[in-house]
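hey m, so remember when u said the tokens were messed up on ur end? i reran from scratch. heres the input so u can diff it against urs
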Amino acid sequence: MRSTVDESPVSEEHKALVDQLCLRARAASLVLAQASTELKNTWLRNLAHALRAGQSGLVEANALDLVEARQLSSALKDRLTLTPARIEAMAKGLEQLAGLPDPVGRVREERALASGIQVQKVGVPLGVVLFIYESRPNVTVDAAGLCVKSGNAIILRGGKEAHASNRALVELCRSELARVGLPEDAVQQVPVTDRAVVGHLLAEGERIDVVVPRGGEDLVRRVAREARMPVLKHYTGNCHMYLDADADPAMAERLVVDSKCSRPGVCNALETLLVERAWATRHLGGLLRALKLKNVEVRGCPETAALGLAAGVQVVPANATDWDTEFLDLILAVKVVEGMDEAIAHIQRHTSGHTEAIVTGATERAEEFLRRVDSAAVMVNASTRLHDGGELGLGAEIGISTGRFHARGPCGLEELASYKYLVRGTGQTRA
């Protein structure tokens, strides 16, 4: 017996909408899979030009979203905001993509066997990608660019808080696709913001090849629970940094401040700082003062609180949930530990598998940390904010996977392609 929800006019309307999105995306993907690298790169460069030329219109559309988002925190508003600098960064990202190798048709492996057959492993697109994301309209262009370059059609389902911004960006993507002779439906936006439509999209396991959720933990867990297609999971970015006994104080301060404060509302921002006790006794007070100047609220263990008091910095007592929280704000959990073993044990217990870092002058301890800590990226003497496709030299990314299957870390062109085997023979049969 069908549920009353399925029989409601709204649900039937959503099902019809999703049906059309999938049909058009599949048709576009078949054309796009055969498109030349030159044509895809022309679209990327033209879109970069269109973004620059249409900057004022994009900022105006974004202003509509910002008016509706007055209740959001300052960090979330920052994620939502399109500035001329961010539009320029989007354009440059597209131009960088145009300069990267095309994964479609690339021969990954080849061999000639004793039987005489020639075997090649060749890159092919995944097909249709569903991208469900929140807040950040700049990733609309990143995702569209990556998918088109890798031969995939994409269905974009952004958050309602960025609907006007995303619509303006998708219109530019589609108009430039048509201009170069590629199918407009290679990039589609879900035109309604009703969350119920997501359930219908996630049920399309036969017509959508992969879903990439990028947003809060509740969103990602819902997608992982309901999806009938593979999921490139991006759980929370509960990122850690450990200050070892041999950490240079000036370097440590610079890396902590950058990791926490440069953009606190993003997934690679620092959320928990672990400090070796001897280092903390000598230097943590000064670091807490530097964080105070940046308006960071510190939630610390009793030792952190005592050192903060001595340095004239108020520390909020940390509770058990703080060690598992992705604050996405100017809030930092700080804990003093005995040494690396305790730091790693804490990370293993609380990490989301996104990014962990160590600051140390001891090469052997740096290498031990790299070996023992298992997250998508492990850093030595570098900001957690560097865990990003562009910063790692991989180009734009559709998200950072914290899972272990198929893709891990920044998901770029290579992760949006699969492969097939091409076998050439001269009449060979199975013996």
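this time it looks ok to me. Residues 4-232+415-423 form a domain with the Aldehyde Dehydrogenase; Chain A, domain 1 fold (CATH 3.40.605.10). if urs says something different then somethings off w ur setup not the seq
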